[in-house]
Batch of 2 targets.
Target 1
Amino acid sequence: MFRVLTLNNISVRGLERLPRDRYEVASALSDPDAVLVRSADMHSIDIPSSVIAVGRAGAGTNNIPVARLSELGVPVFNAPGANANAVKELVIAGLFLAARNICQAWDYARQLTGSDEEIDVAVEQGKKKFVGYELPGRTLGVIGLGAVGVEVANAAHLLGMRVLGFDPQITVQRAWQLSSGVEQALSLDDLFSRCDMVTVHVPLLEGTRGFVSAARLRLLKEKGVVLNFSRAGIVDESAILEALEAGKLGAYICDFPTRLLKNHPKVVALPHLGASTGEAEENCAIMVADTLKDFLENGNIRHSVNFPEAVLPRTPNATRLSIANENVPNMVGQISTALAQASLNIADLLNKSRGGLAYTLIDVDGSVATPVLEQIRKIEGVLNVRAL
Ligand SMILES: NC(=O)C1=CN([C@@H]2O[C@H](COP(=O)(O)OP(=O)(O)OC[C@H]3O[C@@H](n4cnc5c(N)ncnc54)[C@H](O)[C@@H]3O)[C@@H](O)[C@H]2O)C=CC1
Ligand SMILES: O=C(O)C(=O)COP(=O)(O)O
């Protein structure tokens, strides 16, 4: 029986993928094998030592201590692309909110008083304050051309915008998905200096923290717009406030209300709604439950943010060993020596590495006795061993 601890509500469609006869899933349980999470902050909790996998039903993993879990040989899985359409739709809505001053105009209409005739007069007098602009002919800069960024760039291009993209690590898959009408910016500064609107779709990392900075906002065209549906920390909030106050920035549309910005008249701050559609919640939960299940039952690794992809079909009548280890020389040599000394035959083997981590799947004919597993566990550099 695998024990799975949920730290957030996870769509039931995903949880259904973990059959009850083999999985106990609950928001409170001791000694879990795995954790399922959305945005709960795992930096501030003690992660039980029984945990061998963490699944994020979503994209961003900055709420998870990935480096610490890597040191323990624990893979962290996410659901790449599973909520991208939901985020794209909200970002496109954000472009219109900014271009047409929709929230400010709606606030104005809601506070009108008097008879319908008096309201009509106020409407016709007041509407000039909310004159907006249309998107064709405007330039949108998309920073980060991953699952979300590519969808946003393509949709904005279809709306008639000129679109510039910047992502020095764009993958071949995303490059194929990107509309040929999207132009390449040479640098962040190049992008900011050529755009009316800029939207960020990068993970929050040390290298991206605060990279929408005062200096870059100064490069943006007058009355520019910044959209941030990635993470609050990616923009320098005091620089945003300063640019709004100076009239340089026309609007800041984001998914992260903060005390500094949430009530500013030119800010629209939504309560982290990017991935909050029934469809995205289901897609994410199903994807992450499937990858978690395949890891727990077969040791296969797909969609991990810290481990290499490692998928090996199971050999009949074999015991599968799943071994996480440091990526140093002679690990496979020492492991296979331990198996040979126990007269065990290797039927199939896969060894993959990523950065400082390596991962080995070995199908061994017959069963593997506990002392052999103990011997492998004792090899210096081995982080985790399971027999499945
Ligand atoms: N508001 C919400 O509810 C949601 C927010 N997000 C946020 O959006 C982020 C992006 O999501 P996805 O597109 O699904 O992730 P992704 O991993 O598919 O794409 C991220 C892209 O950013 C690029 N990148 C990384 N550092 C960069 C840099 N310094 N400059 C330019 N590009 C850089 C990567 O090469 C990658 O292509 C997530 O990390 C998460 O923080 C994602 C989904 C929902
Ligand atoms: O997938 C992401 O990165 C998100 O920000 C979505 O977060 P959520 O699952 O809605 O708490």
Target 2
Amino acid sequence: MEIDALNAELGIADRLRFTKGRGGFTMIEIENAFATATITPYGGQVLHYRPKGAADDLLFVSGRAHFTPGKENKGGIPICWPWFGPDPAGQGRLIHGFIRCLPWRLSACAELEDGATRIRLRVADDDATRALCPCAFELGVEILVGSTLSVSLTTCNRGQDPLRITQGLHTYFNVGDARRIRVLGLEGCRYIDKARGAGDAPIVQDGAIRVGAEVNRIYEKAPARLAIEDPVLGRRLRIDTRHSRTCVVWNPWVEVCREMEDLGDEDYRRFICVETVNTASEVIEIPPGQAAHIGAEYRVESL
Ligand SMILES: O=P(O)(O)OC[C@H]1O[C@@H](O)[C@H](O)[C@@H](O)[C@@H]1O
């Protein structure tokens, strides 16, 4: 649908409008009493969220993100599905699945009684997805833009066989300087250190996570309450997860950042990914006709 038609049909006066953004991508721009936010139906991806009065965005989006159909966009909250990480079948399919590179359909947008804004987007299997993964599914994301940002992903198995997935909200948090932050909540958890190569024995997290080299870890049995303390931006980002048993913490550091065509050379300082995930041994099996969920709520607090 064209932008004018979208605005006429689904826009909400002074609250929600559709625009053309980077790469000509359709954007949903929200401004309510609590916050401003931008969501693109491409990948069902939240790109920006800033509470009213806050100086800085919750999320990082790379200035070199592709915004090209068929490619992933680096930043915001990419949805990784039906696999998280490299192609589990080793067939060279996209890292983190294909759903973040597909246009989703807007199924509802509404202003709630408390003034928050709710967006629902959906995507289902078609010939193109079945060529990549022979499963029948319907995926829905619900995004609540209020005093907090909440993202909930629901997978419905529409097929005749059990559906096995891994999945994640691959959130890129905007930070003042990654070298000065602390990630809290994973103390004492065991993690697989992917920066040191697969197959390493799990290591136990000793204290808060700090970034002084490449960090690429899968934490097992992750608790539901996490936080990022950012002394440079003077804030604490709270992350409350739902139905997620693993947490990936990723910062590419200098070399990997320079190798990534969709990051600027110094961007490793500007973000940390703390990802709400079910991966590694946490494969989810969904019986036919049933659904599985994963979600997270993000809150910005002053330090
Ligand atoms: O696909 P993106 O958004 O570039 O993210 C890639 C990174 O995603 C992280 O989740 C992985 O742990 C890293 O190994 C990977 O490099």
